[in-house]
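Reopening this one. Same input as before:
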Amino acid sequence: MNLLDDYLDAKVRADHKLLVPFVTAGTFIGGFAGVIYNMHQVSLRQAITPERMQGRMNATMRFLVWGTIPIGSIIGGVLGTLIGLAFQAQDDYLGTWGDPGDTGKSNSNDIARKKKTLPIVYGMDDADARAVIAEAYDTGGDVGAAAIVRVVSALEDAGADVACREMAAGYAHEADALLDGLGLPEGTRTLLREVARYLVDRAG
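Same output, byte for byte:
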């Protein structure tokens, strides 16, 4: 396991109750520090800029600071979408083929409750798997244990398990390629890559 795996497993999973106070404290400190920073940097800019240049200086700073926000929002949205899709593809895979000892949840509940997860959606494109899924999902109540086994077997025959893993890896690869083109500091790129890799390779 890498350092990020160790941190997430040891801190986020075991001590997840600490997340709320830490996030709350971080938000408060960040907001407070932002106000202090703005007071000082605006005062300094106005103090060292000639009066006749104040308007130009303020317009330039506003453009540089606020003008980049939409660009960052778009890039962040694309990156977040790719990482989110990688996470969901892996999560749906684990919901059917994950080890309950690692995930902490049953790997049959999704099918038992007739959820339309990625493996099911993928399986619906295969005629044989579609027939098995329809037979199981068209019944009243939850899907029984024997029917779940048949559905899982049909999904595997259709290649849904492999497809889910490939989709997760594909989205993570796209996110990685996007990071390469952004010119971010190496440390930032490494951290984001570790997050994406953890989401795809996680077993729980």
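So the earlier flakiness isn't reproducible anymore. For the record, The radius of gyration is 24 Å.
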